[in-house]
Amino acid sequence: MIGGLLVVEFGTAAVGTAVPRLPAAGRLDVWLVRRAPLETAAELLDLSELSEAERKRTASFVRPTDGVTYASAHVALRRLLGAYLGVPPQDVPFVREPCPGCAEPHGRPAVAYPDPPLHFSLAHSHGMAVVAVSRTVVGADVERLPRAETVEVCTPALHPGEQAELAALDDPEERRVVFGRVWTRKEAYLKALGTGLSRDPGHDYLGSEPRRRPAGWALLDLPSGPRHNAAVAVRGGPPEQVTVRWVPPGALYAGQTVDLDADGTVYRSADSTTTRVSDWGA
Predict the structure, then answer these.
(1) Are 56 and 47 in contact (CB under 8 A)?
(2) I want to staple 5 with a disulfide (CB 3.0 to 4.6 A). Which of 90, 95, 109, 132 is the partner?
(3) DSSP character string of 224-267
């Protein structure tokens, strides 16, 4: 235990093997990750930096694409956090924060590191992953666009205000898109709280009207391409700067690293008061 946190994985190298590069206060960095190509993943994707538990999890998926998505996401996470903290990827000190419900150490994933803190959130779904990094609490989610059946089954679980907004839409395709945005905002927010879906998804409004959303949180829709929705929840006011970038595919391979200054920016804002990022090219 460290200050009430349960250390679940700790590397052996000393912290500070390189110069830390924590994000500036008020800055939100978001990294988009594509799954490594299935046909070359076994040969090129570097799993040596993952923990034994992560490697076992990678091998446990029934569908190979899901295993490669998981592995790609976790290699990217370790290399990104290692670059921010100045430690080798395999030595990123992951911990679990206290659960908001019972105070036991199985809450939101975090890193054990001296002040100033570094917060992160990882999400992955069907070939895509999102890593959000900030000096304040953050939650991220990415989901494949929902099927019509999913919208029908899950809409009754939403907040009444969200249900009303969906019911007002005549076009089933538009309803499907709007539901996907609402659901990813909701999952991002619940991850930031540390509760996940153990908190009633109908309790909080995350619909189209920002003024009705939970006070003290900023909710941002992210560029995510034609097949996914993605969102980030940040505690406090809107970040002063939001940067969304792709992790280059080769950065996940053996012998490569993640460059925090690499090209690949798809969105940058010095004033993120808007809640919807404009369209972008994949």
Answers:
(1) no
(2) 95
(3) --TTEEEEEEEESS--SEEEEEEPPGGGGBTT----TT-S-EEE
Contacts of 255 (CB under 8 A, 6+ apart): 46
Q: Cβ of 233: how many Cβ atoms within 10 Å?
A: 28
Whether the CB-CB separation of 151 and 176 falls below 8 Å is answered with yes
Q: Look at residue 3 in the predicted model and tell me its pLDDT.
A: 33
Residue-level pLDDT at 43: 87
Task: Report the distance separating Cα 73 and Cα 68, nearest Å.
Answer: 8
Residue type, 60: S
Contact 118, 81 (CB under 8 A): yes
In 3D, which of 170, 178, 174, 187 has the Cα closest to residue 232? 187
How confident is the model at residue 15, as a pLDDT? 35
Please give the C-alpha separations between residue 65 and each of 37, 62, 141, 212, in angstroms, as whole numbers: 9, 9, 19, 38
Residues in the chain with pLDDT values less than 50 = 1-17, 271-282
Nearest to 28 by CA among 181, 244, 265: 244
Tens digits of residue pLDDT in 77-90: 999 999 999 999 99
Q: At what angle do helices 64-85 and 52-60 cross, to 10 degrees?
A: 160
Rg (alpha carbons) of the chain, rounded to whole number = 18
Please, are residues 142 and 227 in contact by the beta-carbon 8 Å criterion?
Answer: no
Q: What is the largest CA-CA distance in the chain?
A: 58
pTM score, whole prediction: 0.87
For residue 129, give the 3-state DSSP assignment: strand
Residue 32 belongs to what H/E stretch?
strand 27-34
Look at residue 223 and give its three-state secondary structure: coil
